[in-house]
Structure formats: structure tokens, C-alpha cells
Amino acid sequence: MDAKVAKKLGLKERYALMTRGLGWDTSYQPMDKVFPYDRFEGIKIHDWDKWEDPFRMTMDAYWKYQAEKDRKLYAIIDAFTQNNGHLGVTDARYINTLKLFLTGISPLEYMAHRGFAHVGRQMRGVGPRVACLMQSIDEIRHAQTQIHSMSNYNRHYNGFHDPMHMIERIWYLSVPRSFFDDAYTSGPFEFMIAIGFAFEYVLTNLLFVPFISGAAYNGDMGAMAFGFSAQSDEARHMTLGLECVKFMLEQDPDNVPIVQRWIDKWTWRGTRVLTLVGMMMDYMLPKRVMSWREAWDIYFEQNGGALFNDLARYGIKVPACAAQAAIDKEHVSHQAWAVFYQYCGVSNFHAWTPSPSEMDWLSNKYPNTFDKYYRPRFEHWAEEARQGRRFNNATLPQICQVCQIPMFFTEPNDPTKICYRESVYKSEKYHFCSDHCKAIFDHEPEKYVQAWLPPHQIYMGNCFPEGVDPTMPGFNALDEVLKYYHINKGRDNGEFVGSEDEKNFSAWRELAGKN
Amino acid sequence: MSNVFIAFQRNEETRCIIDAILQDNPNAIVNEQPAMVKIDVPGSMTIKRATIEEKMGRSFDLQEMQIHLITLSGYIDETDEEFNLSWKH
Amino acid sequence: MTVVAREKYEFAPKDTVDKFHGAQLLYIGWEDHLMFCAPFCWPVPPTMRFGDIPQALLAPAYGAHPDFAKIDWNKVEWYDSGSGRRMQPDVNKSIAENGLKHKDSLRFRTPGLDGLKGCSF
Known about the structure:
By secondary structure, chain B is α+β, with helices and mostly antiparallel strands. Chain B has helices at 12-24, 49-56; strands at residues 3-9, 29-33, 36-42, 44-48, 69-73, 75-78, 82-86.
């Protein structure tokens, strides 16, 4: 007798049965009590079944393919370590990009894991719950694989040793940290727009392609491998973000202005954080991939342009900040590197002046701005360093209450003038780098008055190791702040030329070719 | 018309996937970069399992593309036989 | 505007003046001297004489710039950063007596000393 073979289900049906088919409306407790967070933001959802699953990956497929990615990645990490792959990078200056990444990005991957786990629990619809929970697992995988990949560098170079401690303390790390704290403390729908859409869709290529291509161009197989491995998850994240925004916009026209405001806010906040990436691309890669300006043109103006063309039918407009970002793209990387050049005494990575050929590259890529405004600075500083007067800034800066970046940004119509904006709220004064940060504050001041601003915290005396007495003779505030930051003075910080990293890399490379 | 795009890591499997995409999407534009290949197509792109299997010489589940994928742009429609990217609805 | 939240959303500001051990925060920026990437922030006693600011605060911070030694402090122009309004501080009075409050932000211009290299550096 023939055994009856059931017809195999198609992908759509399999996925529907294994996800929505397993959901139910609660009857012992009211749904609103089980899902207390998905209505308060004012987003109206009438029919969760209208959610279209962008990727139809059931859990068994997820485990299978994620495991395969991890197997491949860890094989590469092992090979890289076994082969002293770190000596294959273009030069030791490159390694500072990884310190920036491990302290500024990897802790955010962990927070993304926490954020998506929370949102994945709070959304009433099964489709987004499943997608968010998969993303949550992806994000902790990213944190783990980044830490593993970079552990090899930590064995040999300075500044990698304490990212989780540093993210909550070091002045420049409050920029990415506060970005994520703002998203994480918003409601689930705002979180989805902030991270799922604005960060993971609109801006993600501006983070990952520069770092990963930077790794590929500079001989860093370890970072390149984890980058590509993470990117394969990012495609799912991007489509989740896009589906989320589309779903919200289609559910009720009242959602449109709320979503627009979030898109405006988060595109701006993300753009400000990406200043660090712009600086990395233009100043920290010995072998450069493309300029920040070019990356912005391709990944925001063109690619983002296509996206916003598509969303126009819902009434969504290109984010309000796009015009200022288009001006800023020719300035911010140069201005930001000047910040790190002068403040590298309090950073966990090194800085240096660009070489003459690097400045020629910059002139070529920034014909409107580099020679006029920025070359003179770096030439002056290079000459000062040659004369034994390397320029260092030891006074704390004024920073923006919202983006928490030092107030180095200039007026959109005049790059020689610092942009100052302020607001008074309940008799206290607050300062901002731009109209856009000010607008974000003015809309939700109660959120930002709580900000932990590093320079202010230092002046309050909150950034010294426990038990240190500032009134004791011989007290050196800067030294104590470095200890609080877990920055090893003279090893992790300061000028690249003459650093331990530079000397070691050079010596080991030479050893690799001798007997 | 806006382009959709997809980008893959460069390896032996994706060599066949890319060949399949180029065969099924005559307007495709290929952009080669270190370790990565990006393919842009105006309007919409269709990736077919049957064409990939033909190029690869083995059976292939379209979801296996996940292992090699770097990034993409456009709305996705996914079945067992085809993976579609488009800006159309 | 209030934060959209499930419950009352009100929190004490982190940086009120009582947290600075008797000092108030003052921000000062030197216009057209972008060698110093951003304006500076200092905790200052409200009783500090305005005229002492150049030696006490600005010299350690800005002294590396060739223009600094040439400044004639009688000719310096002071502005409130937020409004852009020109100020006429009394150098013999204290910061508080000059009406400066916690977290006020000033900038100063030194006409004729416009930074290096013709690019406000």
C-alpha cells in the first residue's frame, strides 16, 4: 500500500502557521493589561493582521542559517588569530578605528538586544513580535561577535580593554550612549522608528559600509568578517523597520504626523552620531574607501531619496534636517577630527595629523571646503608638533544638551562661526549645537533635562574614582578622571606618534620578516 | 524610476547567485568592491531559485542567501521559488 | 510640550547650580579662533571679579594661540551667545553683579585679531 505523502507547505503558509498560527487573544486577562505599552503613544492600530512579514523565516530556518554564519565567522576569527592577522593591517593608526568601534558601537548592539527584547514583548501583533525577538537575538550575536573579533587586537594593543565601563563614562561615548538611551526609554513604536527605521534603514549603510569596507581596504580580515556576518542580519532588520513604518502609516492617517515627527527627530539624532563615522572615514583609515561626503551622497541622498519618494504617497516628507545635513557633509568630518586631535589626551584612542598626501586626497574630495578652512589647521598643528609644541586642549568644552557633542558645529551659512542656540525651561538654561537639537529639546524638555553630561558631571566631582578626595594636596583632576574612565595614561591616550601601539606594531612587523 | 539593490559578500556561492540575477534581470548594473558585489536594478529585481540551482549545480534553498547577504533596498516578497525586491506595490 | 507617557513624566534637572559646590557654570567662546574647537565650560564662584576672567580662566585655556598675548582687554567685545546681544560687563564687579546666571554662555571678539591663516583659526 502506498504511504500517503502530504504535500509540502509553501513558505508563506509554513511561516503563517508557525508564527501567527501560534498567537492568541488572552481571555483570563484583558489584552490591554497583557500589552500595556502599545497604545499610549497615540499610534492607532486597527488590524494587526495587516502586518506583512518581510522575511518569512521560521525558527528552524533561523537557527540553521545563524549557526552557519557563526561557524564561518569563528573559523575566520581563529585563522586570523593563529596567523597574527593584526600585523597585516596597513598601519597601526588603523587600529584606532576599532577602538572607536568597540567602545562606541558594540555596547549599543547590546542595548539594541535589550530594546528589541522589550519591544518584542510589548507589541500586541504576532508578526512584529516574532521579528523583534529574532532581531533581539541577532543584536546580542553582534555584540558577542564584535567582542570576540576584537579580542585579538586587545591582546596586542591599547584602549580595547573596557568598553562596557567606558560607554557609561567617557565624554565622547556619551554621544552614542545617550542616543540609544533616548530610544530605549521611548515607547515601543517610537523605538521602532528610531532604531528599526531611522537607524537600521535610513542610516545603517552609513555606519556599516564605511567600517567594513574600511576593514577590507586596510587588511583587517577579522573586522571585515564580523562586519559582513552582521550585515547579513541587517538586511532583515532593515526590512523590519521599513515594514513597521509602512504598517503604521497605513493603519490610520492620524499616525502620519506622529511618525513624521519621529522620522525628523531620529534622522537628525542619527546623523549627529554618524559624525564619528565621517571623521573615521576621512581621517583614520590609512587606505581610504571614499569620503564621508561621497558616502552621504550615495547612501542618504540617493538611496534615502528613493525611499522617501516611495513614502510620499502616505504624506511623509524627507526629514527636515536633510538640508542642513547636505551642507554639513562637507565640514563635519574635518571639524570632528580637530576635536579628537586636541582632546586625545582624554580619549582611549590616539590621534594624529594627516600627512601631505592624505591632505591632497582631502583637497580632492572636498574642493569647496578643505583647502579654505581645514588644511591650514592641520598644517599649523603638524608644524607645532615638529617644533615640540604638539597642541593639546586641557579645558572642558561646552556640549549640546541633546546630542552631547562638543559645540564645534558651525552656522549652516558660515563655517567660521560656532552655532549657538539656547532654551530656558523652568528657569534653567540649556544649550544646543543646532536648530534641530533645540527643536528636539523644546518638544520634550523633560527627557533631556535629565541628561548626564560628562563635563558637568566632572565639575560636580562625580568622575573621580571612589574614595578620592579633591581637597588633598597634589590632587590632579585630569589624572583622576582618566582613572575613573579606566584609561591608562600614557598608553591608551594621546598622540599616535611615539605611542606604544606605534612602536610595538613596527617592531613586531619587522620581527615577522627577520630571523 | 528608483533602483532597488542587493549586495552580497564575494565568495563561491554568491558568484553563482550573481550570475543568476544578471541572467534574470537584463537591466541589472553590477558594482564590484573589495569583498562585496552590489547589484542595482531600476524598479524591481527577481531572484529565482531554479536559475541559481542551474548555475550552482546543486539544490538551493533561497533562504540560504541570508548567509551571504550584506544589504538591500526595496520591499521584499519571498516565496520558495522567488525572492523579489521592488519599489512597486 | 510634555513628554507623551503612561504616567506623569517630570524629573529634576541634573545640572542645577546647587550641585556645583558653590560655583556656577559659565561658558565662554572666543569668536574666530577655531583652533579651540568649541567654547569652554568652567565652574566659577559667583563672587569672581569679571576683570579676573582673562588671567584666571582664559589665559590657561587660550594662551597657546599667538593672538592671545596681543589682546587689549579694554577693546574686547562681549556678547551673550544665545541672543547675540552685545554686553558691557563691568570688570570691577563680580560675575553675579554683572547679572550672569548659572549656565550663561558668552562669547568675545577681539577686533583686528581674527585668528590665523585667514580662516578664523
